[in-house]
Amino acid sequence: MLINSLRLSNFKNIAGAQLDFSPKINCFLGDNGMGKSNLLDALYFLSFCKSFTGATDGLLVRRGEDFAALRGMYFRRGLDEEITAGLRPGSRKAFKRGGKAYQRLAEHIGAFPLVLLSPADMELVGGEPAERRRFIDQIISQSDPRYLDSLMRYNSALEQRNRLLRDENDDASLFDALEFQLEMAGSYITARRAEAVARLKEIFKPYYRAISDCAEEADLEYSHTDYPDGLAAHMARMRTRDRALHYTASGPHRDDIVFSTDGMPVRRTASQGQTKTFTTALRFAQYELLRESLGLRPLLLLDDIFDKLDAGRVSRIMAIVGSSDTFGQIFITDTNRRHLDEIVADIPAAAENYRLWHVERGVFTPIEA
Asked: Which residues of 344-363 are buried (b: 16+ CB within 10 A; e: fewer)?
């Protein structure tokens, strides 16, 4: 899959931009805060119908303007495809594929896959379990519509149960109905997470060894609780406890993925370079898992990827990206032109398929590659 061109109007700090992309390497050069990451966020928005920063739709509209518009022209499974999105503060976003609006935005997830590696990924390792659950949920949801539906049903039932707990409602029939829904959706969520983490681990470990030059051994494990007599029965027994807590303290929404190097938790013992190596290998494994399950090459977005990495690890990362047939179209941001030139020089396919833009205050100017 490729995105051939992107047109933006009033998206974040970008007043207007029309970019035609290389099918292989696209680089964006500029100081911090100029709009490089905003361009990547626009690509992310067209794949996931939301910003990777978590900003609400209204905050994506350029200050002083009353709308934002995005248009991406893709080549997917042998066909040209158009994705458009429109945003107005206080209004529901408009999202169309081939000029036709989606009835449910969930139908779009996974159709135009994308993997983003950014500085925010440090939170994936050092942050709360919710970050790691979102990571695995996003991977599975792109290739399994049933999983996404189960996740939405589970979260809806969980929100309703928590509301009953906060209101100190003691209607047993309501609790029974919600706990049955939580068990039905939760059992599928847990099973698919276990499968996905096991496969991700197989792909991840060789990537980590290659980037770290076998300096340490890394691992990941899915941490969850089994309920021998079923989640619904367990929740029924725990209602008194949960009423005191005012929330549901059991279930897949409490799961985690444990990351380790040499048997020690990454979040407590790893250096910044080791953590960055871990997240890079994790994203590469995510990419390969999606390519395997979808039969499409996702877009690969590398936002300021080389910060906190030594020259050796940078070189090994680019050797992986450049020598592998796994990766398709790539977008890279950096603040250093020489750095970008050295990076691209390590990628044989970039010689004839490389485009470079200078970015300043939301303006994208093509420069000699």
From this structure: bebbebbeebbbbbbbeebb
Residue 259 has pLDDT above 70, yes or no: yes
Amino acid type, 122? M
pLDDT tens digit string along 153-168? 999 999 999 999 999 9
Distance CA 114, CA 138 (A): 10
> Could you tell me if 25 and 330 are in contact, meaning their C-beta atoms sit under 8 angstroms apart?
yes
Instruction: For the sheet with 114-117, list strands across it.
Output: 114-117, 299-303, 330-334, 25-29, 354-360, 363-367
Alpha carbon distances (Å) from 153 to 176, 194, 212, 216, 232: 16, 19, 40, 40, 15
Per residue in 266-294, is it b (16+ CB within 10 Å) or e — as a string?
bbeebeeebbbbbbbbbbbbbbbbbbebe
Where are any strands of DSSP class E within the chain? 2-11, 14-20, 25-29, 68-76, 79-87, 94-97, 100-101, 114-117, 218-223, 256-261, 264-265, 299-303, 330-334, 354-360, 363-367
196-209 residue pLDDT tens = 999 999 999 999 99
- Cβ neighbours of 194 (radius 10 Å): 14
Q: What is the mean pLDDT of residues 39-45?
A: 97
Residue 281: strand, helix, or coil: helix
The pTM of this model reads 0.91
* Run of H or E residues at 318: helix 311-323
Cβ neighbors of 21 (< 8 A, separation 6 or more) are 2, 3, 4, 5, 6, 329, 331, 355
Bridge partner list, 367: 356
Using only the alpha carbons of the chain, give its radius of gyration: 22
CA atoms within 13 A on the CB side of 119: 8
Please state, in angstroms and rounded to a whole number, the distance separating the CA atoms of residues 62 and 123.
27
